Amino acid sequence: MTVLNDNIPTSTLLEIKVGDTISDDNGLSGVVVNIAIQETDEFLMLIFGLQEGGEIKAKKLRQVC
Description:
5-stranded mixed sheet; mainly beta
């Protein structure tokens, strides 16, 4: 099971696939049934839909050099 929080690397988030079990710091957990990715110039948002209902969102700010 992968626990999603603010400290998880972006590379780890991108490795999560449908069928994986994930959870967050708020106690929400479940099996991933779909993944949506939203990109802007400022951040990358991954939204993991769960089999049991609900979703877990992970937002990563983009590094600006």
